[in-house]
Amino acid sequence: MHPAPSVIVFTTLSGLGFGLLFFLGLGLPDVSGWVAFVFFAMGFGLAVGGLLASTFHLGHPERAIKAFSQWRSSWLSREGVAAVAALLVMGLYAALLIFLDVKLAPLGWIGAVLCLATVYATSMIYAQLSTVPRWKTALTPALLLSISLAGGALLAGQLALAKILLPIAAVIQVIWWVRGDTALKQSGTDMASATGLGNIGSVRAFEPPHTGTNYLLRELVFEVGRKHAVKLRAIALVLGFVLPVLLILIPFAHALALVAIVLHLMGIAASRWLFFAEAEHVVGLYYGKR
To answer: Which one of 60, 93, 158, 235 is most buried, counting C-beta atoms within 10 A?
Structure first.
């Protein structure tokens, strides 16, 4: 699929933001006053900034409010409801903590759960799609949640947790890539089933359905070269996971945690680009693109 910049920004920033808010809801780090303000400002800035970026991918951003009404059947709507609930609860928790020095732990716990629910709902937007076999797996929620938690721990200064969560996320990422490389073939969907002509013999592409491009080809039949993908995977793995872990393992070098955060953000952005660029929508079979 065509990797839209707005969706890459959304999934990268919002995941990190809600991951940070999750730990803040648990009281990690245990901060108050202006220090708490800085941490919460970062969390809200990343989460809200990512959500706003996602609206640019909508055909009619002004109608985004209508998405909230479909929460019974739409994971996109559930994501919106969960995000608003999480931000409202965490906003109240943060206000009490910052301005009144009142820490309502149960309120923070509720907010933390809602933050994870938001990331899970985001992941299910993709994991539910049978038309993209690479996404249609329980590994997709596991991937987005693990990266959100790892990045959140890193940004929250919970380096002991980050040392554990980053390698876990890296392993899930590699497994997700390996499984995804054969997902389309193993799905059983091919040109015969895509065209509905398999019952009359072997099906192959003679010429495209039309000579020009269209929306489906622009948005759903993006192809990335194998060599290019391998290089980007290496970059994502090294920047997003390996280097951050190595940096925070250095004793008494907490200043390097900022460098680790920046590298992690760059690596996850590369991973997110591949998440969409390598997504093989089955509609490509109809056009002979797979």
So the answer is: 93
Reading the block at residue 212, the tokens are 């020009």
**pLDDT over 80 (residue 45):** yes
Read off the tokens for 211: 């000579």
Q: Which two tokens stand for residue 70?
A: 């479909």
**69-78 mean pLDDT:** 86
Q: Are 82 and 21 in contact (CB under 8 A)?
A: no
Q: What is the SS3 assignment for the chain?
A: CCCCHHHHHHHHHHHHHHHHHHHHHCCCCCCCHHHHHHHHHHHHHHHHHHHHHHHHHCCCHHHHHHHHHHCCCCHHHHHHHHHHHHHHHHHHHHHHHHHCCCCCHHHHHHHHHHHHHHHHHHHHHHHCCCCCCCCCCCHHHHHHHHHHHHHHHHHCCCHHHHHHHHHHHHHHHHHHHHHHCCHHHHCCCCHHHHHCCHHHCCCCCCCCCCCCCCHHHHHHCCCCCHHHHHHHHHHHHHHHHHHHHHHHHCCCCCCHHHHHHHHHHHHHHHHHHHHHHCCCCCHHHHCCCC
Q: Output phi, psi for 196, to 5 deg.
A: 75, 20
Give mean pLDDT, residues 26-38.
96
The reported pLDDT for the residue numbered 231 is 94
